[in-house]
Fold this sequence. Notes:
Elements: H1 4-24, H2 30-40, H3 44-53, E1 56-59, H4 65-81, E2 86-89, E3 94-98, H5 105-112, H6 114-124, E4 129-139, E5 160-165, E6 176-178, H7 185-193, H8 207-215, E7 222-224, E8 231-235, E9 240-242, E10 249-258, H9 265-271, H10 278-293, H11 297-306
Antiparallel strand pairs: 1-8, 2-3, 3-4, 4-10, 5-8, 5-10, 6-7, 6-9
Amino acid sequence: MLNLRNGVHTFRYWTAMREQQRAHATLSDTDSLRTAAKAVVPDVDSHLLKLERDGVSSIQGYWSTRQCQAAQAELDRLMQAEPQCVRRYSNDSDQRLFGAETAGPAIRLFHDDPFLKSVGEIMSGLTLYNFVTLGARIDATAANRGSGDGWHRDAFGFQFKAIIYLCDVTDENGPFEYLCGSHKPWRASLDSARGRFPVPPDSRIDSSSMDKMIAAGELKPRRFTAKAGTVLLVNTAGVHGGAQLKSGHRYALTNYYYFPYQIGKSIVEKFLPLAPGVQERLQPFLEAERAFAAPPPSAQNRDHHAG
Length: 307
């Protein structure tokens, strides 16, 4: 039986999120971005179509094996040098370091990649900023729950990430999984009405219920097994996660793109601890937020005299 109230609530919530994004973010020059993107990936239009339809697309061979090995070595060194910055999930099997772009030139190249950012800007029609690059290693342990600690959405409306595998990823070592089409408002509304997923702002999905729906054939997430150097372009407003690792380990980098207006104290605190130097890069956003929130001079003067 459909719960129409839940469905309507979800649709309105998603619509409100997109309206907020369009109201506060800056329009991007999608024509120029598309032309530049085609110079890097000639068949970029096919990837944009997949992103629009499915919410996810992959480009094989985006990086060479040598680039992946260099980035993996940089990440290992940074994790060893800054253990206090490593966040641990899934019973310590999932190790994450936000600010991996500070590790060295290989990861910095991924962080600064203009093509990757342009894909998100074309899809959203709005200008993005790469808030931080996550460097992650996840190991197969008896208690690991996969990357991301289960099924979830990152946001509602639109959220863009670029993920690159730094090692070969098979069914054994936790491939990225995505429920194609779940990034669309009508689909999210229908799933909420049918009781499959919680209504916004709840973004976490119960793993046991998800497993049952997959086993029954109600849902068929796509698994992205691929060689090292494959990049995934993802609207993470869709339902996604990482499969449990059965053996080995998985290395990956993820660029977290946000609209500049979204970056402030609350989001910085959400990602703490950050690698040394990252908060300094983000300081202009925090200063702009404080300036925006400050009362006008006349109000400040009144408060001063009243005290």
